[in-house]
Amino acid sequence: MNTLPRTTIPMAYALETVPRYTSYPTAAQFDTHIDEGVCRDWLGALDPAAPLSFYVHVPYCRALCWYCGCHTSVLNDDARIARYARRLMRETELLAEATPTAGPVAHLHFGGGTPTILASEDFAAVIDRIRELFPFAPNAEIAVEIDPRTLEPEMACALAQAGVNRVSLGIQDMDPQVQKLVNRVQPLEDVVRTMDLLRNVGITRVNADFIYGLPKQTAAHVRKSIRTMLDLGIDRAAVFGYAHVPWFKKHQNAIDADLLPGAGERLEQARAAEAAFAEAGWEAIGFDHYAHPDDAMAQAARAGTLRRNFQGYTTDGADTLIGIGASSIGALPQGYVQNEPHLGKWAKSIDAGHLPVVRGVSVTADDHLRREVIMQLMAALEVDLAEMARAYGHEPAMFDAALMALESLVADGLCRIEGYRIRVTPQARFFVRNVAARLDAHWEPSPGRHSLAV
């Protein structure tokens, strides 16, 4: 029986557009003042003893899912994909030349697109090159995003041989009608086959990604999809709200907007996901992740060490994330850097021996403090502003204006404030981004700039 608290929060908050806060400042503040020269200076100043993380972006898929908001394109030219892999290795070499003696790599994440579109030998070569140039921690997590429709036995073996110890499966929704309406027909047999392939090669740590807010989708669809994957043995999950932005992602025009659920239905679907995991004994992580109690992410949440980066909630404790590949974003102690998203221009930069950084943002002292505040709130759903301010040498009164901005949210039941401590209420977990936005010195309500809160 679902005993989770019901919400009476006004639907206006669900319709508010707010950042996802995978960084702070967010990508909306990136500009072209941050370039290759700045990036090289920042890389050269890294602490040689500090751990690193890497994100490798593969911007290709065999078919385009109409809901997709990622930087990707359809490509069925294996020779071009192989050339992309070689340039990933060359970019790694350029990064190694610009980086001092590096600390151990704690996390390596391949995202996309579909990273397993690479030939198995090319995938292995990319990982081998990173290992040759950067030392790895013995317990490093190596994770790969997988389209369950396309994983082949040869690639599954290559993943295991390369040391991959976690994978993330794009599930979204298991209902055939919903799948057809978003151009991602993915029979259950494909998912079962992929799970079997992974187990057969010894990869047992499996995430599943789900999406709510899709055309013709219902809360019952969400529940059934989650229960199916729980039965198949996943140990971690993310549940994202579909962001319909056809003015930004033109292919989303293929989705009939009249078939999309409204704000109330979206919230009902998010709560259906929450209930399905709660009934299975899983723990809620932040506002959109879930984990088995024995999983490292649930343990990190209980221990207060959970963090957030461009992949969402994470156990990664490294302060430096280096991005490789077109459009990838890196996080350095001094700020954020993003690679050229245009594939041709990215390739030209790599071939010319340049780091392909085209924009980013430096992080000011105020940004550092607010980043810690917002990330703590996003991870733990509460934060002590006074404690945070004093840790950075400031008086808590610097947050008085933010607390005033939160008064209406307190009245509407999103959070409670005791002195300078903010606590998101149990019924408002899905609205933590609305609360965080009032602590964001850069945020301005602007439809279309960010995704809906729920």
Describe it.
Strands 10-11-9-8-7-6-5-2-14 form a 9-stranded mixed sheet, sandwiched between helices. Strands 15-16-17 form a 3-stranded antiparallel sheet, with helices on one face. A 3-stranded antiparallel sheet has the order 18-20-19. α2 runs parallel beside α3 and α3 runs parallel beside α4 (153-161). It has helices at 36-44, 78-98, 120-133, 153-161, 176-181, 188-200, 219-232, 263-279, 296-303, 343-351, 365-380, 385-391, 400-405, 407-411, 432-437, and strands at 17-18, 52-58, 60-61, 73-74, 105-112, 136-146, 166-172, 206-212, 236-241, 283-285, 289-291, 307-309, 312-314, 320-324, 329-332, 335-339, 357-362, 382-384, 415-418, 421-424, 451-452. 47% of the residues are buried. It is built from 15 helices and 21 strands. β19 and β20 (421-424) form a beta hairpin. The longest helix is centred in the N-terminal third of the chain and has 21 residues, at 78-98. Helix content is 35%, strand content 21%. The mean pLDDT is 95. With 454 residues, the chain is of the alpha/beta class. It is globular and about 60 Å long.
